[in-house]
Design brief:
286 residues; globular; Arc Repressor Mutant, subunit A; 2 domains; alpha/beta; 15 helices
Amino acid sequence: MSARLSTLDEFMAVIATLLPQLVHVQRLRAAIRDRHELHECDDWTALTRTCDREPVRVAVVDLYWQRDPDFEGVRQLKQRLPRLTLVAYVTIAPERGHDLFDAGRAGIDGLVLSGQDDAPRPLLAIIERAESRSLAGLLRRSLDGVDQLVTDAVLLTVTRAHERLSPTGLARLLAQPRRAVTHRLAAEGFPPPQRLLTWGRLVVAAHMLEDSHRSADRVAATLDFPSGSAFRNTCQRYLHATPGDIRTRGGASYVVRALLRQVQARVTSASEPRSRSPARAPQLAV
């Protein structure tokens, strides 16, 4: 695998689907190359349950899974999980043209037309554009100008948070020796791999907490913290905040800002003996 990871298929973690047509599932798998988890659901109840219990950021649904367009299901899912990115995958027909105008109003973020947009590259591009407004997009904007390998490392700690990566596993995904990854992170002011992995899990946990119905214990269980108490202790140790504080202070953007403030402080401190001008640091674009 190349060390220069740049496409969504390297960074997406979990996709949930409501796609009754097997061919659509197969095309989606071809687009993401089966590198990440794909949770197939049979109805809206199962889809909602999966998105509620797993760190799902993208759901791909067939609006016509029960023949008539199910905009109410879309509205309810977006109301429950407003941070979820929803992509509609539909077979177009003359009588369905007007329905697509309602899809955006109902909460659909992207549209895939069967037979037109679902070759691997176009399909991946549509999902990437829709997903760019979510957590990965927030991180990319915040890390603009940072060393590419460091950016890739941060993105992987977030999008693979549910996998409990080790520092060695992170280095393997980056196709770099672990020592080299540690050195590059330190050069940019970022914490070493083990602590960065914990920061990544906290970013995802905070993102999940933005949906108000999720409890801290549920988030802890989803991200495989040993217990709810262990999760709360980690929040205090890294952020000096409770899960409730994190929720009210902005969720994922709050955690990202906290991480980047630490990075800026390290970069500025390291530059002071050499120059009065602070070194380049990530911008707090969140």
